[in-house]
Task: structure prediction
Amino acid sequence: MELSNDTVYIKKCKMGIMLLTACIVFLLCGFSSGCAPIENGHHHLTSMYDRNTSRECVWDFQPGLVYLELERYYGRHGNIDNSAHMNITMGSHVINIGNNVIRLEEQRCVVSTTTRLEHQLWLAFVFHERMTTLKVFSQGSSDPFVECFTFVYKKGSTFSVLAHTQSGMEQVVRRVALKPPKTMYSVPGASTTKSLHELDNRLIDIEHESDAHMLQVDKLTFLLKKHDVYISKLVGDVQKLSGGRQFMFCCVYGGILIFLLIEMTFRVTKKKKIF
Result:
């Protein structure tokens, strides 16, 4: 039994609507969870490989205190980005985390805001009826969280964290917690996992740089061999000349040779410093 043209048309329309709906749902889900790359459950707002990049994520407030575990560190070469920062927005208040300082309008708190493999930056927000106090984890202190400043703010429903880097800095929200850390790490063994992960990334960087340096060494070796052939030819030509001309050529080409050696030494020294 053949279907009528109207029936076929209706079926095609239904299939088209279903496909369109599936695409819209997929896009909405993708955009709603794609505020930043997520690795091991951590939101990497910016990386050391980013250039002039900003990303922002929003979290819902939960009852009680709020603890933020953050990371801010540079690459292996210590390329310091003085413009890199993280902004925590609560209502109309923007708390700025820069290099070794946390600011809120005229208030400031001088603390170490860069982290290493073994340590993170912990912030605690204590909410009162109409006031909020920001505390910072201080390692080695009798009270691990030291008060930074207090400001007028009644706890809302959401807050956001924005990170920006101009020349590359890793800025990560590791987690939003409701309880203070028992240790400096998120879970038992997290320090080892984190260290191995970062060391693996750094070894990959070293391998890439080593390959680049070996390529430079091969080029320099080729140039040296080329210069050796050229100099051997010059020596043969000079030997055919008279004594006065030999002395003149020796002075000229000796100066050229010294210049080339100085230039190659400078390049090799520069590469070693970078490495």
The chain has three domains: 1-33, 36-187, 203-274. Residues 190-239 form the longest helix (50 residues). Residues 1-33 form one domain.
